């Protein structure tokens, strides 16, 4: 039986990409229940191939016992496009189909910092507007204080 392809999703993080992998389904059943690959093989190997401007890099083979798992590829160049393909195999079965390529651009640290500055700036502007409105209200420009007749005071 040929294993694969796994389901792969990638998201960007500062100078890195986060790869989420869902193992392919098996077609074997036990008492009507569809068996997962971890039910059959217990431990599986996965290989991640990374493509960028520098060319193709095969990451060291790693092992998993989980159906869905994530791994982070770090120390990447910011604002550069990276594509990933994942291949899953087992010690008893090396026949596999790699996942289709998925691509994403790695974030830069600066973009993350910029987001925090933008939020802080918006908060400051809101506070300044609130303070100005409070002063204007206190000075009586908005909702001027109604003067009651002396008999009601």
UniProtKB/TrEMBL annotation:
Coiled coil: none
A Gene Ontology molecular function term of the record: interleukin-22 receptor activity
Location of the Interferon/interleukin receptor domain: 2-105
Domain of life: Eukaryota
InterPro entries the UniProt entry points to: FN3_sf, Ig-like_fold, Interferon/interleukin_rcp_dom, Type-II_Cytokine-TF_Rcpt
Cellular component, GO annotation: plasma membrane
Annotated Gene3D superfamilies: Immunoglobulins
Pfam families, per database record: Interfer-bind (PF09294)
Protein name: INAR2 protein
Provenance organism: Daphoenositta chrysoptera
High-level lineage: Eukaryota, Metazoa, Chordata, Craniata, Vertebrata
Gene coding for it: Ifnar2
């Amino acid at each position: 039986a040929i294993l694969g392809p796994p389901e792969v999703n990638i998201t960007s993080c500062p100078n890195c990409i986060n790869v989420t992998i869902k193992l392919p389904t098996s077609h074997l059943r036990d008492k009507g229940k569809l068996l997962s690959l971890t039910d059959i093989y217990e431990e599986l190997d996965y290989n991640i191939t990374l493509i960028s401007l520098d060319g193709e890099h095969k990451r060291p083979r790693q092992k998993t016992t989980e159906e869905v798992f994530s791994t982070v590829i770090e120390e990447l160049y910011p604002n550069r496009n990276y594509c990933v393909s994942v291949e899953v195999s087992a010690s008893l079965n090396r026949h596999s189909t790699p996942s289709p390529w998925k691509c994403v651009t790695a974030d830069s640290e600066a973009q993350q910092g910029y987001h925090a500055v933008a939020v802080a700036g918006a908060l400051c502007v809101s506070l300044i507007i609130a303070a100005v409105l409070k002063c204007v209200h206190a000075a009586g420009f908005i909702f001027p204080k109604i003067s009651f007749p002396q008999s009601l005071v």
